[in-house]
Design goal:
mainly alpha
Length: about 260
């Protein structure tokens, strides 16, 4: 009878070591981006929404900073930040999300004119960029400019106007020009120009008056010279008459002596 050796035994009667069991696979943990984490913590976003946003933003590296900045802006104004965030995440996933907009030529000119800071620039660009009606947008641009012209803190004024801009309301009449505002500076410049023109006219009048006095002096000198010449001629005539008289007297005297 053939006895089959136990395969678990090896020479020398010792049992072979059993292979170690494979370690269970641990699912990879998605590392939360610090900026995404800060945003979700700031607005008390639930963890499952935060994880979803984190995955979405990993695929938006080219516009990451602008997208995060824009999310902060719109969530700050939202009554329910979490609800708005889910809408925006869906737009990102569907390719319909419109993030921070770039200022157009008209807004760039306004930014330069009033030296608006980056926050005011971005907020205006995003709000105005959402108005598709050119006429309504142009009306708002004109209203905004009138308000900024009277303010000595244009960037702060922009922040004050954002709510009405977002709601589509009229901005109302601007206040009187504040000291240091663009309009105030224009008024000061006009006054400086007027004073400069007045000084220039005054100097011209002084020069004209001086030229007039010089002309009067020249006329007086000419009259004096003419009088002097007339006196000289009169004296010469008088001397000539006197000489003639003397000659006549001499002739008469010589004639009597004869």
């Amino acid at each position: 009878m053939i006895t089959i050796a136990n395969p678990s035994l090896v020479a020398g009667g010792q049992a072979a070591a059993a292979p170690a069991p494979a370690a269970p696979k641990v699912p990879e943990l998605e590392l939360m981006d610090a900026d995404v984490g800060d945003l979700c913590e700031h607005f008390n976003i639930q963890e499952h929404h935060a994880k979803r946003l984190n995955i979405i933003m990993k695929g938006r590296q080219d516009t990451f900073e602008d997208d995060i900045a824009y999310l902060y802006e719109i969530l700050e104004r939202a009554r329910e930040p979490a609800g708005l965030l889910t809408v925006k995440m869906a737009e990102m996933e569907e390719g319909k999300f419109v993030g921070r907009l770039k200022p157009d030529a008209g807004l760039k000119a306004m930014i330069k004119k009033f030296k608006l800071d980056s926050e005011a620039q971005n907020k205006l660009a995003n709000i105005l960029g959402r108005y598709k009606d050119p006429e309504k947008k142009a009306t708002y641009m004109a209203e905004i400019e009138r308000h900024l012209e009277t303010s000595n803190k244009p960037s702060a004024m922009v922040m004050m106007l954002l709510k009405k801009l977002g709601l589509g309301e009229s901005l109302g009449k601007p206040s009187k020009p504040a000291i240091g505002s663009w309009l105030h500076q224009q008024e000061l410049e006009k006054e400086r120009e007027k004073k400069g023109r007045d000084k220039s006219r005054s100097r011209e009048r002084q020069r004209e008056s001086s030229r007039g006095r010089d002309r009067d002096k020249d006329r007086d000198r000419d009259r004096d010279r003419d009088r002097d010449r007339d006196r000289d001629r009169d004296r010469d005539r008088d001397r000539d008459r006197d000489r003639d008289k003397d000659k006549d007297r001499d002739k008469k005297s010589r004639s009597r002596r004869r």
